[in-house]
Amino acid sequence: MKKLKRSSRLVEMTQFLLSRPHTLVPLTHFADRYGAAKSSISEDLAIIKEVFEDEGTGELLTLAGAAGGVKLIPRLSKQHALAFANDLCAQLEQPDRILPGGYLYLSDLLGQPAMMNEAGKIFATAFADRQIDVVMTVETKGIPLAYATGAQLNLPVVLVRRDHQVTEGSAVSINYVSGSQKSLHTMSLSRRAMREKSRVLIVDDFMKAGGTIQGMVDLLAEFDAEVAGVGVLVESGEVENEERLLHDYISLANLTAVDSRSKQITVKLGNYFDELTEQ
């Protein structure tokens, strides 16, 4: 690669690191790439590190030694996350989201890449310090959120199917109970989708009592896998605590009430922001 001015090199290095989060990059890679001395590269990285940390958008870790290098850990400050969540709550409270039966329309929000990327950054920040091998969700609406989170953590995404696909090969299937009617459903996961004993981050777009997510937890037990964390975009606050099947999770928004007659929707911040709002 041709030599670049320092300003251009800083931009290119930043873009390179952003596209490879949680990946150890040797200093020699940058030195060879730009035809620059390691000391110059180290100075550049110190500038990038300072900007990331001042803006609250990431942490640049430096590992010393022959096998060392730098690794970018994307992060989103609580203040930036709070601004995102407040906007999410405002959009969720739009009266025209109410569907027959009191359901809430979310597909337009889940279809916005920029919004899902921000949510993915929040989950990546919340679970950055945990050892995770894969991100998991159940088809279909949780897929954009899972891929956004996987991209920020630089991890593969595993999709749990509601109906087994022949193209998935042999699979493990279980029954689980979900919905207000306590109806019985089936979910399956290809045996090739994930290694045994993996540590899994589960993400989903919506959680009521937690039956679907608990189903995924039970499915992981068949793979001798471990749940490393659970992230939910929106949780229902209308469920009594004793009725909830899952208690260890983070949410970004809490749907507290839906009144179909008055077309009023009440949404508050999710439990991820509890500490911040209590200050």
TrEMBL record:
Range of residues in the leader sequence: none
Keyword Transcription regulation appears in the UniProt entry: yes
Phosphoribosyltransferase domain location: 109-241
Domain Bacterial purine repressor N-terminal: from-to ranges: 5-74
Keywords: DNA-binding, Transcription, Transcription regulation
Keyword Transcription: yes
Domain of life of the source: Bacteria
Family matches, as Pfam families: Pribosyltran (PF00156), PuR_N (PF09182)
UniProt-listed InterPro entries: PRTase-like (IPR029057), PRTase_dom (IPR000836), Pur/Pyrimidine_PRTase (IPR050118), PuR_N (IPR015265), PurR_Bsub (IPR010078), WH-like_DNA-bd_sf (IPR036388), WH_DNA-bd_sf (IPR036390)
Entry similarity comment: Belongs to the purine/pyrimidine phosphoribosyltransferase family. PurR subfamily.
Subunit structure, as described in the record: Homodimer.
Name this polypeptide is given: Pur operon repressor
